[in-house]
Amino acid sequence: MDNIRIFQNEQFGQVRIAMNEDSEPLFCLVDVCKILGLRVDNTLQRLKEDGYYRIGVTDSLGRIQDAYFINEKNLYRVIMRSDKEFAITFQDWVCDEVLPFIRKTGGYMIAKPEDTPEELMARALLVAKDALKRREERIANLEQQTVLQSEQLQVAAPKVNYYDRVLQSTSTYNINQIAKEFGMSAETMNKKLKELGIQYKQGGQWLLTHKYQDQGYTKTRTHSYIQHDGKSGTAMQTVWTEKSREFIHGLFNLKNTIVTGVKELSRIYDNMDDLGKKEEVFSEPLYTDLSKIDAMYDVFRSVCCKSKMTVYDRKKFLFAVVLLYCPKTLAGKKMKSGLREKMADVLNIKARTALSDNVKDLVKIYDSDSDFKKDVSRAYKFITKNITPDINNPFLLRLQA
Q1: Range of the domain at 179
Q2: How far is CA 346 from the centre of its chain?
Q3: Residue 278, SS3?
């Protein structure tokens, strides 16, 4: 870890900041909790272990004491736990001033009233030296990654070339040719493919089941033959493409043992179908008219707030409105055009880009914090019962129950 630096603000006081090996800023948890009126022990329990570090700091008596430092994602989680009115202002200061300065210079320097120009210059050179050192370390790490990736590409090259040939190939095979590659007869191969639910027989021809149709696995050819009475006849024959040949090789090993069982294949496809249906239904919002958000805000304040609107109340309202207007955002998709700006205006949030980051963190809090989940559900119900939805989506409306 790099030496600890101090960010000073007249309104909030000081926040100690260190940099990890990846040149990412780490914020002293004690300082942040002191500003936001939170208990360190309770706050620490709600953070992910891979997002905080123990770093030695010097106390007022000159002793080295371990202190917890948190990364940027955990910082936002801590800010959202605070009910202090200035929590949003504190977040704006971090997003608009602190982080941009660190990312631009690689460090931070506090000018003291008693500092002479020479002292300021000397300290500035130290900050610049640290920034250059971190830059050189990043370059060295990137060079190592480049070498590793080059080695991985060399290993993967034969496989990549094979897939290129598969995708571009126009070759076809009858089932007898493929079966011989596994030391079995065409009859045995057809039987195994049928057991796997890949094909079925109809009118003397093997056809793919619905799950495997339109995958580019087979083609149909017409071939001529001489009947027993000497007359010529025609029949339809299924042939397999290079893509399906690779697919079949993936199902069998060289000892003719099925790699993936029928039940597992069916389970995977069934789950995909279910997820697709849920996505299709859930992606449609209940509201499209952004002007209704003002009325929602009034309803929320009158029903869900004890007195004045706290930071925690803003979190509940933000999550509920995003769910109503753009549920896909909660799954990582881009927020609907105009929604972010409208919510920033209603909630009086200056750093609008930070609002999107807040939504991502709120999703994680919603998944892990049962109290937050209950409060959001309550807000959701009151809003949808008092403000008529623009779209009739039965699936989402069931959440009111």
Answers
A1: 172-273
A2: 27
A3: helix
Element at 206 (helix H, strand E): strand 205-208
**Is 41 inside a domain boundary?**
yes
**Closest C-alpha to 389, from 312, 317, 286:** 286
User: Is 149 a domain residue?
Assistant: no
Domain tally, the chain: 3
- Which of 214, 251, 249, 220 shows the shortest CA–CA distance to 235? 220
Are residues 263 and 320 both part of a single domain?
Answer: no
Final residue of a structural domain among 68, 89, 108: 108
Tell me: do 318 and 265 sit in the same domain: no
220 and 307, same domain (yes or no)? no
Distance of CA 270 to the CA centre of its chain: 24
Tell whether 61 is covered by a domain: yes
Specify whether 183 is located in the same domain as 92: no
What is the C-alpha separation between 344 and 339, in angstroms, rounded? 8
Q: What is the largest CA-CA distance in the chain?
A: 113
At 236, phi and psi to the nearest 5? -90, 135
Q: Model confidence over 53-87: pLDDT tens digits?
A: 888 887 777 788 888 999 988 898 898 888 888 88
Of the candidates 21, 128, 25, the one whose C-alpha atom is nearest the C-alpha of residue 75 is 25
Tens of pLDDT, residues 85-143: 888 889 888 888 888 777 766 554 544 555 555 555 555 555 556 656 666 777 777 77
Is the whole-model pTM more than 0.70? Answer: no
Using CA atoms, how far residue 369 sits from 77, 281, 366, in Å, is 12, 26, 5
Q: Looking at the structure, tell me whether residues 255 and 311 fall in a common domain.
A: no
Whether 25 is covered by a domain: the verdict is: yes
How is residue 252 annotated by DSSP? Answer: B
What separation in angstroms does the CA of 142 have from each of 128, 155, 320? Answer: 21, 20, 42
Number of H helices, E strands in the chain: 16, 10
Q: Whose CA is closest to 179, among 221, 223, 240? A: 240
